[in-house]
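retry 2 of 3: previous attempt timed out while embedding coenzyme a persulfide. Reduced batch size to 1 and resubmitted. Inputs unchanged:
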Amino acid sequence: MFNPDSMLLPFFDDAHRQLHEDLHTWSRANLHSRIHEGSVDKRCQELVKMLGDAGWLRYCVPAEYGGVLPGLDSRSLCLLRQTLGYYDGLADFAFVLQGLGSGPISLFGSEHLKQKYLPHVASGKMLAAFALSEPNAGSDAAAMTTRATRTKDGYRINGVKTWISNADIADFYTVFARTENDEVDGVTAFVVDANTPGLQVTDRFNLCAPHPIGTLTFTDCEIPVSQRLGEPGKGFKVAMQNLDVFRASVGAAALGFAEAALDMGIDRCVNRQMFGGTLGDLQITQAAIGDMCTEIDAATLLVYRAAWERDILQKRTTRSAAMAKMFGTESAQRIIDRCVQLHGGLGVKQGHPMEMLYREIRALRIYEGATEIQQVVIARETMKTKTGAI
Ligand code: COS
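retry 2 succeeded.
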């Protein structure tokens, strides 16, 4: 945390404080740079192995299946993302995909699915992925057209999923498909092994801050009924409840990026000589620092409020998670942009960590529900309180 006193906030207990300290120690020793050369797939596979060997992935699954804590602890997940994100955006990515891809199994999976996947997610032996978006169903997730039809022994899946992080390197995908022929009309969730005949990675592309991502095509992909995740027709809720957990953590990762930028920005302010003093002597710089520090503290409070509500109040946190995601990512974008400005030319020089942060933050305002979707979610949840719908 940029402000060490943040760990004294009542959202945390001593185990969180210890986790925070241990994680910083490990990250300082093991994550040396946020700039990576060479194959991004290979680096992600290495990072998953490192995170698995160190025991950090054990926070992605419940204790019964190799985890540290009885269930998914949102505050720990957020602390992990914030800290990893501070040192290396790709390490944060490698970590969270294990959680996002396996979260639906932890939350809704049968004993069979939990035993089959979760211990390997926790050890880093299996890589997970979450396949919800489609070419024509991004923000409007319910518009998906991938279809799973009943067969004698299970389901046959046909359709296309895109923007799927870990495409090509995942061992399994949590997939959402329409099952209108099923007992209940709607969407159903499945776990599909990467080597299932009929499942192919048909495209790979690069983002401005690269990570493994691509398109999956399902062609008469047959899976047994034991790979169904949760009840038939209840898949949309599976997806949304998983996002309720992980959306707050996107805000946490953004916070880690913003803290890394601010650290470098402050360093620059006190060391950069200009106009007979330092950059930080200028009141216009101090105004920027004042705004950035306040936004970081505000994002911290929103992220850990959402995480605490889920962990302690054990209530649906759709609204507070949306606020944490929206404010965390939007404020981080503003902070990073300002810190690029404080760095002058260096801030846009390829290979400089500020330039990397500038590229890394952008996707977080889009994935797991764009800012505009969070605005809709917050508004709807708030209006429900007036109509008595909750
Ligand atoms: N938890 C549990 N159930 C939820 C839920 C949540 N957080 N959010 C919605 N639901 C339920 C609703 O209660 C509703 O159930 P009933 O039909 O039983 O009433 C059902 O799901 C449909 O909800 P809603 O009508 O709100 O769905 P919409 O299609 O109108 O839109 C949004 C929902 C826009 C919020 C959703 O599509 C969304 O989050 N989109 C962004 C998707 C996303 O994040 N994509 C990125 C993929 S991961 S990188």
